[in-house]
Structures are given as structure tokens and as C-alpha cells.
## 1
Amino acid sequence: MTQYEPMRFHKAWGYEPKPIPVERYTSPDYFLKEKDAVFARKWLNVGRINKIPNKGDYFVKDMRIADTSLLIVHGTDGKVRAFHNMCSHRANPLSWDEEGKCNGKKGLIACRFHGWVYDSTGKLVHVSDEENFPSVNKEENGLTPIHCDVWEGFIFVNFAEQPEETLLEYLDPMLSEITGYPFGDYEHYFSYRIDERVNWKTLQEAQLEGWHLPYLHEKTLALAVASDGQQYRHAAIDLFGPHGVLGSPPPDNFEPSPTGQIAGKFGTGTMEAFGRQRSDEDSQQGPKWRGSFDFYHVFPNTFIGLLQGTFFTFNIWPIAHDHSIWEINGYYPKCNNAGELFAREYSKVGLRDPMMEDCFTHERINSVIASGAKKFIHFQDEELMCRHLSEGVDRCVRGEM
Amino acid sequence: MPDLPAGFEDLEPFIQWAEPTEAGRNSRRFSTSYDELKAFYDVMIKRTDAALTHLNEYPLDELDGQQKNLLYMCLSLTEVAFAVENYQQPDPPYLFPIERFVPEHDRWTDLYKR
């Protein structure tokens, strides 16, 4: 039985085991500070290029945290841009649909209110009844752009007038760890949206540690991870600037269920990927693997979960201090037949049920935490990433990061 | 016209499980008695291998109505499997309400990708 040195991760990453003030979760004032100090400054992932694979495609991203909605456009010139989804005439959202396609070769999009037309680069190309708008200069009234960049198909935006770092600089310490995973070969297979009464950091915390698996998920994921008695030990926790990664330890022996065995015969299932031992072959190409499942957190609100044969993402969007949206998206290699589809579906349901167990805790916590009965919460060593998020946000709020 | 391809007549009594959407499959899972779930599970766990082997002989986007029914019944097994193999009950008490866990992909027009 492996012996783990107590507080190994705190020592390695220079963190003190201090209690965390509950105010960070319950205070509307603190939330307003987070809005300015974090969400108005940091790069935020709004989805993957799979949503807009072709030139002229666009999708709309509601961004309550910035009091706006974004129009993310794959331009006819191939560049992906983000704009406020807002006509320059009277601020009507240009697209009322969640997604669509610009019209024609020129890639035009017209406002449904009074017909002003923009091209896919955001330029205003037509003002209806133009002679009656003597004060409107088309050159100066294009769509309002937001900084936007794409890494490995992940689309990020930044609301700052001038971002403090480029996207690549922001992700840099972590990039080389993930590079090589075949993101571009995978297709979008599932997408969930959960509207929850919970603080956005509480929502993320169950995803920032695997230690709860043998407890909360005793009937599901616990079967596919190693635990020493009841205690789960991460294969690794590594931090990169404000970001970090958890490595999940596979069990010594993993016996798939009868349905899992059928899924395994026809394709790859999530439980099987969780339970899989890493081989030398894995480390020779692609990302640097730490466990059977490596879970990356991109500060402040995005997760990228890598497994053999599937990856999934979480985006957590705050609405208020006690209200958040959880978006879950899953990606798989091209599906060739019914057997592979069955394996994918089993994989998806096997992820969804544990996430419903996670969700159950969110609103329960939210229903009592504002009472003020507890002034602090506590994170142990295996929960270092929870601390890293909370402290990272607090450093931003204090103006130190 | 039978609901299922030739050779799978034995699954006809469970045809109500040929649900095309995830929401349809899981609402049936969460609202069916454990005995009924177990009866469906016991049959499908023996027949899914043969069903998928049959369906694999055809391109996924060219399956006919009977074959799609068979596929949807196999997909229902993925839901029922967790009720039987993991939870041993149809509606575990400490799960977030399934109807608030909204499967946006059910609205996608393509059966299996985008």
C-alpha cells in the first residue's frame, strides 16, 4: 500500500492550509468584485469551433456576467471574431436565434428590427433609409468587437479593452501539457445545460477534487478509481499559473459491468477509460498523461477532461452570487456504426449520472450556506485545486493578479 | 408491418423502449417500476450484442424504421443499465431532478453528430 506524505501538494505548491471565508460564496458585493476583477479581465472559453465549422456560421452566447450577449462569427475570410450581439441602430440583438448562417457569398447578417446589414467581419454595410440618418457614419458603426482568439479549436473571448496577456500567454504554462491530444478529430456528441441556484465556485469545487468519488459517487465512478480504504489519492496535482490539472488514479483491477462489457466490445466507454491503466505507449505521443483521466482547469471557469477516446468540457457561467449555469459538452471520434453509438451513449450516461449526483449537493449547500452559521469552510490537501481557484479569484479581487 | 427487424420478434413486448431521444429514454427509466426495468434489462443484456452486430452491417444514417427501433431499444439499455447495475432502483433519492439536466443534443437534427 502506497504511503502518501500528509499535505504533499500544499508543500509542493507553497500553500498554507488556511480556512476559506464563506463570504466569498455568499456576498453579493464580493460577486460584483469578481465580475470586474475576474470576468471583465481574463480570457473566457465560449465553446469550440465545432459549433461553427464553416465560413459564415455563427452562434450566440448569452453572457449575463458581462450584461450582454455575444455573436461569435466564423468569418467568410476564415477568421473567428466575437462581437456584442447588438445592432448599432437601437441596440436590438442582431441574431435572435442561438445559431445561424450569414447569407450569401458576402456573408451578410441583417437586423430583424429595421434591416440594417453587417458583414461577417462586423462591418456595417447597409443602413435602411440612410438619407434619414445624417449623423450615422457606416465606418464608425460596425458591430462592437470583443477580443477573440482560438487555441486548438477552443474559442476564447476577453472583455478587457486591452487584454493584459494574449490568449497564448495566458494559457502558456499549460499548453505543452495538452498539445497533441487529437481535439480536431473529435465530433460534438452531447451538450447539457443546467440552471442551478448555486455559487459558481461551489459548483466548480466538486469538479476540482476527486477525493469525494468514493463517498458521493459510491455507486458509480467510485468503481473505476483507486482508493486506499476510503481515501482517494490523486495521481498528481500540478498547477500552472492560475490553472491546474488533476490526475485520476486507475484501480489495480477494473471489472466492467455486463453492459460495460458490451460497450467495450463495440467501442470505448467512459467507465472503462477511467479504469484503464496507462501504458508506455500513451506517453510517447500526445499529451503528458498523469492518470487514466486528466482533468484540466482553465481559470476561472472552464474544465477540459481528457480520457482515452473521449474528452469533455465544462463551462460554468455565474448569473448572480447564488445562481449559475453549468454547460457540459462531450466529444468523441467519428462514429462509424450502431455499436460505436451504443458505446458512446453508455459513456455519456455514465458521466451524466455522477454529474447529477454532484448537482444534488450544489443546491443543498446553497440552501444553507447563506445562514452565516459557518464563517469558514475547509480544504484538505487533495482539495488543493479548490483552494487554488478560491485564492486565485481572491488575488484578482485584491488586485494582486 | 412488425416494429423490429426479422429475428428480433422476441423484443416486441418491450417496444415502448424504442425512444428516439435521451429525455424520452431517461424519463421512462425514472418512472418505471424496478421489476419492469429489470425485465427489460434481463432481456436486453442477452440480446444487445446480437442487435448491434446486426445493425453494424448497415451504415448508421441509412437504418430503416425497424432498425432504428432496435437501435433505440439498445440505447435504452444504457439508461436502464445504471438503474440496475449501479443503483438497484429506478429513481435514486439523491439525484438532481433529471428534467432540469437539459439534454440540448436532443434538439439536434442529426441522430449522432454535429
## 2
Amino acid sequence: MRKILKKLKDMPLRIISKVAFKTDSKNRVKNKQPSVRKASRQEQKEIPSLQETVIANTKFSHSENISFVRAMPEELPSFYDQDRIVLQVRDPHWLHSYWEIKAQTFEAVKNKLGDDFYRAKRVLRVYDVSNIMFNGSNANRFFDIIINDFANSWYIDTAGPGRSWCVDLGLMLPDGRFVTILRSNVVTTPLDGPSWITDEEWMIPDDMFARLYGMGFGLGRSSPVGGAWQERLKQGLFSSGLSSSPVKKIVKERNFWLKVDCELIVYGATEPDAKVTVQGAPIKLRPDGTFTLRYYLPDGKQVISVKAASADNLEERVITPIVTRETR
Amino acid sequence: MHGHLPFVRHPEHEDFLEEDWLYEAITETYVPLISVFEGLVRDGIDFRITMTLSPTLISMLADPLLESRYLKHINRLIELTQKEIERTKWQPDFKNLAIMYFNRFSHARDTFQKYNCNLTSAFKKFQDLGKLEIITCGATHGFFPLMDVCRDSVRAQVKVAVNHYQDAFGRRPQGIWLPECGFCPGHDTILKDAGIRYFFTDSHGLLHGTPRPKYGVFAPVYCKGSGVAAFGRDLESSKQVWSSIEGYPGDYNYREFYRDIGFDLEFDYIKPYIHPDGVRINTGIKYYRITGTGNHKEPYVAEWAASRAAEHAGNFMFNRQKQAAYLNDLMGKPPIIISPYDAELFGHWWYEGPMWLDFLFRKVACDQNEIRMITPSEYLNQNLRNQVITPSLSSWGYKGYSEMWLQGTNDWIYRHLHAASGRMSELARNFPGAQGLVRRALNQALRELLLAQSSDWAFILGTGTHTSYAIRRTKDHLLRFSRIYEDVKSGSIDENWLSDVEYKDNLFPNIDYQLHQ
């Protein structure tokens, strides 16, 4: 668990490492194993909400619950017997898509295409459908991503914030024809900067907006920061961050360690109704007259006088262990 | 302030580690906050705070099983602090701290019992006094932007939450904290239909909206089409508290979170207070201050930490005054500054957080008259005219959008969640006005779907540490949902099994499956 807590502390670094990969649309992010590397403070600073993520995770700090893990439930179904491709927005640049094709749908395509089917490549066709009612042939533009036959999901780099997108999963035939199997829903990526549309009624000077904008992001401590807006954009705060610096060589940290402490147990017994004091302070006996005391033992000499008085106060016994701890 | 925990309740296990999330939050965050509010009211200090109590959190706080388990938990901790007072007899620094924890835990227990073991009633009291505005959240904290392809589920998350709020507080919620602050254009219409007046977005939600917001994040906007108000987060004030680099909680005099006696002390001694399987866990008893960047830690000194908290509260107020004055000149009208934080930041992560908040409230009320505290609904009542824009897709999560909940480690869940959502709509459509056993089954189906949608599972999967519980929960609820779906369709509901599932996942007793459409 100690290690786990350490891990939590390191988490921002681990997350940053995930973005250090230059991912392209031919390689699904999914298949990449993130590797650990140290990130500079500067990098930490540029990623929004990193600290929130670390702190939110402390809500869930725990050890693996062994008994619970042993009884893992059955698996979820791999298929829901549907023809469906779903498109979701990850950030201003990236989309995520997953799909499922019914076996009979596939058979139908196979029968229709004959031999061509086996020479066709599986392709995601990504349409820019901003500001139109897409009918299959009126896209502003499109691009293709060749995918492998076993993929059932993909991350797509559109490089197009503030645009609307639709994706076809289909086959590219050797003669260049494209056959659509499934068509996705339409999604719109958010802008990664301020809108250039300003309402006439609310027209405001750009410089005022720029200063408000900078302050909105907490740039400058209660004072305007000139050009903060542009600076923010330059830092690429709102890009996916996927083009950040490449993975650096990992230097293994040496973190061997040792910790030693001492505690002292003092125990004894007397008549159950006797009154006992240790270093002058009364202690409680168990019903059978025994007692156990446990102390952190600091360096130095401890004189532990244990005094027992009989219930009628006529008799008294004193025993005084003297313990010395010396740490070198 | 956003108070939320996922629904974690396991009657089938005597000791269930993850239930500690709730117990820790009660002792370290919710009770201390309530004590701060009590003190302010007692001293006649006027204050305002807006706070989410998520429906799952309210459900757990009101659950008799979890209440009795909390009492057991806190009593055990009190017993441990008593032993600690004895053990540290020859170390006065530590002994004082052991006494501090003994007092603190005893106070937590007393407060808990004072409110009849249900802290929701305490928060309700401060809302009824007009100091606290409690807002709602998604029913189980589903991340709405990744539910956009099944808006029926977004609607159900919102409506179940609103009804649940009404049951708990006897009035309708004015506002909502969208789970993870995740906004997707169009969802404002769903909020409007549920009678919600306002929500919050992260800074870029407003700043990157269309058209440009005239006043940035320093005035709310109305969403185009729905007219629901959106307030944008101010990052400057957020950073002062959140940031690991410039933030207050990193002060060397504050308590170190990562040194807990659950890990530090000798095994046989601490064994009765950790998990019965011998797994070491946090006890909440932490004796050190942050001290510095290295591993060497010095004992915590409560007085030093308190004086830092007072200084930091003064600094925060000073910066807000400067910020507000500057913005007032620039805008020609008073700005509103929104500073949202996770509730667990206060007390759990930042031990001195509730004390800082207390100092801040008192200073703002007594030491100045440049700024004042206000709730969003008060602001909207006083400022009717606001700009109309479409805010941008955004969240307050890592990198500002959906990536925290949509990456290689958790993207597999969405095909299942979306399929289940489609099936839930199909059930609601095909079985309108169901009664008896079928109705029970359909209501439970919606409970299971909502529980599977909690963003907390995807979040934990995304962090990559201790994922097995999150995987387990995602699968469990989806599998229970699927079984109900099949059983209802084939007309063969197993009542014994259903009763067992109703007993385990017992939240939202008044849920109506027909809200999912």
C-alpha cells in the first residue's frame, strides 16, 4: 500500500507519459503501452486539471480487496447482435469510434462483392459534414484510414476543432470504389480557442476580451497579463497534447531503504482489586489482575516504576525496570 | 463545492474496504464542514456557499446499514487513539497529536449522532437558513458528454436526481453540478425540462463558446435555445487552492497526507484497526507535517498550521479583492467569481481546508466590504439580463475534455453502456405503465444501468491503479441489467434473485423506469 500511495503521487507523471506518444491514425492509442518517465514541473503546469485528478484519486485510495477480486463475475457479451457504429468526441482534435457488424450483414456484403471482397481493404472514411445536412455525397471533404480486419474501435485524429464529423465503416475495393457498410452518428468537435463569432449586439473590443480571457485562465495574479491569450494558444493548452516531446530514456531510480523503530512492552500481574500506578499514573487492570502497557521507546533512559497497592492500602510493592535505548 | 462519492454498499461482506471512502469522507470532510457552518451561524457570521450533494452520497448518508457501520468504524478509531495516547507517553509531540485525533474522532461521532446519524439533515438545516445552496448532480454521476449518443440516459440521470433531491430536501433544486463539470451542447435542454435554472462549466466551456462571451467567465450566460444559465469557473482562484506548485495545501506546515500510522506502525499492534485480511490501510491518524520536499518528516504542529491557514485565507481574500476591483473597472459592472472545488479536497486531502474556509468566511464578513459571497440563484435574481451563447463541450477533468474517461484503459465500457441504454429505452417503450413484479424489475433495471454509468469507474480505470473494483462494479451492474432485460422480455422474472439485487443496490426507492425515454 505504501507503494500504492507513492504511485498515486507519481500519477500525474504516468498520465503525462501517455500523451508523450506521437500517435497516428494507423496505430490505435489503445495498443500502446504507456511507459513511465519523469516530467518536468513545466509540463505539469501546462496540463489542466492534473492536480484535481491526483486529489480526486485520493478519494479512492485503497488496497486491492482480495476476497472481492477472487470472485470476478462472468464476462460481458462480445456482441449485441446489432449493426452499429458510434462516434464520440474525445477532445477538439480526436474522435473515438467503435462498431459492431452482424454476421449476416457481413455475409450479404460478401455475396454482393464476390471475389472483390477478399481483395478489399477495410477503411474508415471520415467526412467533414460541418454546416450541411449530410446525404452521403455532399461532404465538405473526407479522408480514409485503413484499419485492420480485427479492429472494433479506433481513435481518429481529425486535426479539425470546431467541425462536424461523420464516419463510414466500409471496404475499399482494388478499383478504388468505396462500399459503405455502416454509417455513424454525427458529432461536432469543440473549438480549441475562442470563437471568432461576436454577437453584434454584444460587440466588445478584442483587447478587453483578451485580458478577460487571460484572467479566466488564471494567468497573472490579479493583474492583467498582456498577450496571455495568445500565449495560451501557443502553449497548445487545448490541443490534445499528443505532439509533446518524445519519450526520454528512463533512468531507474535507486530507492532501497530501511526503517527501524523500538517499542517497549511492560506487562505484569497483581491482585485483581489492587491499585497500580506506572510512573505515577494509575492504570487499569484486566479482570484477572494482569496488565500490558506499550510505549514508543525514544533514545535515552526510562525509569518505569510500577507500584501496586492492595485494596485495603495496607500493603505495597514497587518494581522499577530501567530501560535504556541507544541508537547508533 | 462538489460533494460526491459513488454508491458503495456491500451488505454481503462484513468488512468492505471501499466503504471506507464514505467513512473517511464523513470524519474528515463532512463533519468538519458542518462544524464550520455551525460555528458561523452561532457567531452570527453571514456566509454563502453552494454545494453539491450527489444523489449517491445522499443515499449512502441515509442508509441505516452504512450508518451503523460508520459508528462501528469511528468507535474503533477512537479506541485506537486511546491506545496511541498511552503509547506515545514518552514523546510529548506525538502524544498531543494523539489527543488531537481522539478529540476530533469523538467530535465526529457526537456530531454524527446529534443529527440522528444522517448528515443530510445537517446540510438541509443550513440550506433552510439561507446560508447554503444545495444543488444536485447526475443521479449516479454519469459523465454526460460520453452519453450523448443515448440522451435518454442523460434525461434519466437528471430526472432521477431531481426527484431524489425533492424527496430529500422538500423543494426542487435550482442548479446542478454536471458530473465532472462535463457539458455537451444540447444537454441544457434536458436540464430545462427538469426545471433546472443553472449549471457550471469549466473556464473554456464559456470562453470557447459561440459567440464569444462578452464578460468571459465573470458573468453567467444563457444557453441558446434553452435559456438555462451557465456559470464559468475562474481558474485563478482555483489554482491558488488546487495547484501542486503554487497552491496553499502544499505549505510545509500543513499536515502530510501520505504518512499514516496504518502503514507506519508495527503490524501486530495496528492489525485490529486495518483490514481483517491484514491489508494495511489509512487510519486517518497522521502525525507529520509536509516539512519539505524530501522523505524526512517532522511532527505536525497544530498551532503553526492554523496560523498558516489564517494567512492563506487572508491572501485568498486579498487576491479576490484585487481581481474583483480590476474586473469591475474593465467590465463596468461587478463580476462574479466562481471557485469550485471537490469537497474531499477540504479535510481529507487538505487537512486544514475546513479551517481555511472558516477563516475566509469570517474575514469576508467582518474585515472588508469590497467583495461578498453570493449563490448563483441569488445572482440570477439580481441580474436578469445576460448574454446568450452556446457554451463549448468541456469538462474539468484531465486536459479539459473527455480523455480521462475515454482512453485505452476504459474505452471498452462504452459499447456495453450504450447498448444497455438502448435496451432500457426499449423496455420503457414496450412496457408502459407496468405493475407488480414487472414494474419492480424494470425499476431495478434502471437502477443497475445508472450504477454502471458512474464516471467513478471509468475514472479509476483511467488512473490505472486498483482497477479491479471498478471493473467488477461495471460488469456486475451491466450483467444484472442484462439479466433483467432478458427476464422481462421472456416474461420469466426470478423474484428471489430480483429481491436479492434490490436488497444490494437499494438506492432511489422511488425511482420510475419510465423516466428513461
## 3
Amino acid sequence: MLSVFKIDHIIGRVNPTRIEYVLPRIKDLLNDLHNLELIEFEMAEQRRGTSDIITVYRPTFAGHLIALLIEIMESEKPQPDISIEIYNLFDSYFKEHHSSYDVLYAALFKKYMERGLFDEFGIDILISRLNSGMQIKMIDDLVHRLELLSFGDTEKALLYADLLDEVLKKLDPNTKELLFYENKLLLEQKMATRVQVIHKDFEQRRFELKGRADRIVLEANCENCNTYFVVDIEILYYLRKRNFAPHTPNLSVPKSECSDCHKGSLILQRL
Amino acid sequence: MARISSISDIFRKDDDGEYIRSNARLAQKILSYTLVAQKESPAHKYDEIFYDRDLARWLLDHYIEYVERFQDRPYNRTSESNQN
């Protein structure tokens, strides 16, 4: 972070110009954007041969990314140059961030770009996050831990699942294990708060599979014979099924076969 | 004016589609201006410096609230911040 030297102009009070009229509010906002690490203040410097010392500003990486996303949001036409610039920004971001999510998303973004899908899958997720109402305090809340997606469109969901499969196959085993484990923790924690009947069995199975990063434990219910089960399934299989939830009548994960009554009526929760 | 205290504040809207923070749109325009500064700089670097007065001048022409305010009538000489 650069040193901050903020030296205000003396605003003419006798005969204010329009600029001077609006400047205080603008400076307040620049301060707010600075607090969010979107704008930096820099060493004051002289300008136009005067001895005035004035503050200069510059956007940060985060500020530039948000500015580009605003440009895309406001544009009615595709903006391929901006998309490429955003991709390049992320490319440099991922070179400095190495969590399993970052590695996954670096590979996914590259795949999107190769397939001409970066706008659809890469930029849209960022814009939908900005417009979602979710709390995004700083830029890390926007770009870190991008969740695996689900879609309201079957074709898109299938395409995404295929892309994810392709990328996951090429991830190194350690990254993949860390990524699955992270997802396992998140999903099982959500499941723990929604278990309805067999709490002890759920906890027991979850404990037994604590070393299996690729499997998650869920409570499932058969709506035909009303039996509750604790099941464990592959995370990838579950995420793939969850992707189709928007197309089921009650937005639930598509049903599986019940091991008791053998009907396709076993309901998995949508976590 | 309510402060912008998170990135969400720049974008969040209410059920009627209105920005919750009255400064949200202006904050967006300020960030948009950084792209203008980038385009105008010889190096086209994204982190090109800019000056608040140049920004204000640009906003007077491109931020709809200012354009409308100064279009037809004389402005109140009390600065915006002091009116609130």
C-alpha cells in the first residue's frame, strides 16, 4: 500500500465554480473507495507550474476489475476486449494466489477462454455476485472462493459439468484432494444443520469417512416409504445432480433409488 | 450522504430496483472514469494516475444527476456536502 498524503485543495468560497461545488462529495466518495482498496492516493505532486501540492489518485487491481465489470454491465453489446482484460487480470491474480479454489478457477477460466465461454461462465458469475445482494465487503469476497455453479438451464448445466470434469481430471491429486475436502466440510456442515431424524447415524458415518475427501455424508428420505437413510456419495456425483435441481418440481436434487422400496423416490437435500 | 462501506453498497438495489445507497451510481461513475484516464494515458496502464478536478469535470458531463442539475438552472452555491 502506498503512503497516503491527502492534502485538500482550498475551495474558493467567494465564487465557487461548478467543479468546486461537486468536489467535496466526490472527495468523500474517493475516500470511501480508498477504504475499500479500490482507489489509492499517492504522493502529492506539483502540477501546472504552481506550487500547489495536490493529491493524485489511481485505481488498484480491485478498482480496475470493478470498473471493467461496470463497463460490461452497462454495455448492450459484448465487449471482447474488456473480457480479455478481465481474464488477464485474473491470470495475474491466480499467479499470486494458490489455494485449491484458486488453482481450480485458474484452470477453469483458462478452459472457458479456450472454448469461448469466458463471458458466459467467468464474467457472469462475477456480475451475478455483484448483483446478488450478498455481502461483498472487499474484493476478496468477490473473487476468492468462487463457488461451484448451478444453473437454471439444462444445457448450460451439462456443459458446465463437462467442463468441470475435464478440469478436475487434469488437476494435480493434492489440489484435487484439498478442493474436495474443502467442499466436503462445507456441505457436511450444512447437512448437519438440516438432519431431521437420524442425527447419531449421520454423525457416526461422517466420522467414519472423515478421511475420504471425495465422499460426503447426507441424510436422505424416501418420499414413497418414508424411510430415512444416511448415505455417502461422491462429491462430484452430488454436485452434478445438484446442478439439475432448478428443473425438478420442488427445486430438490433429482431423486435416487430407495434401497428399501426400490422406487426412484429418494430425496437428497439441496445444500 | 450515506457512506459506501462495502463493494456491495455500490451495486445493491431495493425491491423497486433503486440503489440503496444514494451515492452508488456516482461511485460507479468514478470507477468508470478510471478507464477513461487509462485510455487517455500514453501507456494505457490501468493504474494510471488521475486528478480529482479532472474527475469532477468529467462527471459534470457524464453523471446524469450533475448533467441535469446544471443544465437549466443556476446552482446553489452551498457545496453538496454542506447541504446534507
## 4
Amino acid sequence: MASDDFHRAALEHLDALYNFAMYLTRNPPEADDLVQETYLRAFRFSHRFQPGTHLRAWLFQILRNTFLTFYRLRERESALAEDGVPAWDAPMFHDAPEESSGAVEAHTDLERALRRLPEEFRTVLLLAEVEGMALEDVARVLACPVGTVKSRIFRAKERLRGLLRDYTKE
Amino acid sequence: MSDHSPDSDDALGARLRTELRRYPAPAYLRGSIAEAAEPPRARPGWLAPTLGAAATALLLLLASIPFLPRILPGDPTERLVRSVVAEHTRALMWGARRPEVMPTGLPWLTQESGIGLRKYFAGDDRLVFVGAEPVYLEGRRGMALYYRDGDGHLVNYTVLAWPGLAIPEARRVPIENRFRPALMSDSGFSAWVWRQGDLACFIVSDMVSESDVERFKDYFVRLRLSTDPVPAN
């Protein structure tokens, strides 16, 4: 694929990637950084993309891996904090503002419940249900077998239902 | 067959698709990513070899500078004036290297410069004494006394041991029917040049305009009458 064609095709998925980034980070500046970093990596390694495979899944895979890289880095830094209290609201990127200053609030029970899911459950629901991605593509993004994807979707929905029931009781 | 109860997988999937807000990418983000995607503009093919050749030529020129003949005035007096003016400029920009207070610094100055002062101009209401220091110009030792006038002009009186310095007749200016120093100029500075025994004397300042010349004459008279340099040996 020619470089210009690749860039054009990649930019067609910008809105979907940004939406995914927003649900992962819950913070617009961090989502900006995450998407920007995703595209920089995609452009830098465009020669590794195999034409004929799904560009969309490839981009989502880069975004998720980038998120996890920084997320794990943040977790490790939190674990090393002197007071031993993990700073979950620390920014994912060092130059991003604190989450509390720009975090997007959840407006519905569904959003609130989705936020409380572990990342692997949240991601699988966002990709399969919200983005409507085929299970094979979701498996490519998560780098796991399709069977694992199915099982995660099932468990994620179970967990989500339980959380929604809790909100209803409140 | 799909389960359509409110708690079913399908219903939950439908809620996720319809109830969750979608966040479109901001325009500025799209712009910055599109900008990053643009390939760098190709340079013209001739640019690299031209720049390379120009850089090589510049390097050769820089390397050959020490071997190029210097453009110096052929006349020794003019060359000496240029050196005195250069020293004056340096003092003007950076101040004296080691300004001495008079008269306490005079013995050391005499020892370093090889020039003694039987009397010296200590300043008055027009010129304020700033300091003095030994100088070394054109291979000769000497002494420089610095003054500043009310308008901020730095006036530099320099004496060098230079027997037989030629004073250009065409530039001599009669002052008060007593003195005939030469008025020379270099790099935007004026200089009075005269000989006092085996010493070459200079008064330098940036007073170059017509109106300044009369004042510069006055400064010459003040310094000339009140300063009496002699070789220290």
C-alpha cells in the first residue's frame, strides 16, 4: 500500500480510535496523547502492516498495546510510591494534566458500570459490541484465540449485569 | 433464537451500542495527525551537492585565514594609531583590565610600563579621572590613562616608548599657537598624535563631529599641559 493511501485509510478510523481511547483513559488530554502516539507508531511501522489484513484491527491493537504499556508503567510507579498508596489518578503520560482536572464524568449507570469493569472486560465489550468488530478481529486486537474472546464477552456481560443490578437497588 | 429479555446478552449489547456516548475526535487532533502523516518535502537534487561544496569551500577559506596577508596600514604611525584605537575600543567595551588608582598605583604602573609621570592630569570639572593601566601595543610597553567627560565620552591618554615617531605634517592642527599635534582618525574615533621626547603620545575619543573637535582640542590642552611623561629608565 502506498504511503499516502495508508495514511488516508488509517485516518478514516480516527473517530473510532478516539472513542475507544476515551473509554480506556476517561480523560480527553490522555486520549489525545494516546491516539496521537498510536498514529505515530502506525506511521512509523506502516511497512509492517500486511496489506489485505484488517487495518482497523491493527490500529486498535496498537492503541491498546500503547495504553497497556503506559498503564503498566503507571502501575509500577504507583507500586514504588513511598506511602504505599497507589495513585490511580496519576496521569498516564507524564506531561498530561491530572485526571481529576479533566476527567469525563459518567452520566448513566451503564457508563458507570462499564468503568468499573477490568480493562480486559471493558475492552472486549467496546470492540465487539460498541465498535461491532468481528470476533476474529477482536481476537487479533487482544492477541488471544476467538474462544477466549467469546468467553470474555460472556463473563464481561455477566459482570456488567451484576453491576447494573446493584445500581438499580441503590 | 435470540433472547430478548431486558437482561439478555442481546439486549445488553444493544444498550451498549445505543446508550453509550460516542466521543468524536477533536478537529485539532485530526489536523495534527494529518500533519504528521505528510511526508517531508523532497529537497531538490542539486541542493545537497551545492551545500556540500559550499561547506567545503568555507572550511578551506577558514583554514587559510592565518596564511592570508593582513591588510594593515603601511604607514607605521597609522598602524600605531589603529592599535591605540583598538585598545581604546576594548576599554570602552569591557573596561580597563586592571585599573589603578592614582597616585598610589603610579609606582607599579611606572615599573610595568617603563614610563614615569612627573605630573599627571588628575581630572577637573570637565574630565573625571577613571583609572590607569599599563598597555602593550605593537611590541612596545606603555601606559594608558582614562577619563570620562560630562557627556559620557571616554577619553584615553596613551603614552608609548617610541623614539622618532613620524608625525604626518599634513594632519597637524595648530592649537593655541603652542601645540601642533596631528589629528588622525580610525574606525570612527579621533586621535591626537604628537611626540614628547622619545615618547609617542595619543589622546583618543569618539568625538568626531565638527562641534566635537573644539571640545577635543580643549581636552588636548588640559591633558597636554598637566601631564608630563618621561621614560622611566
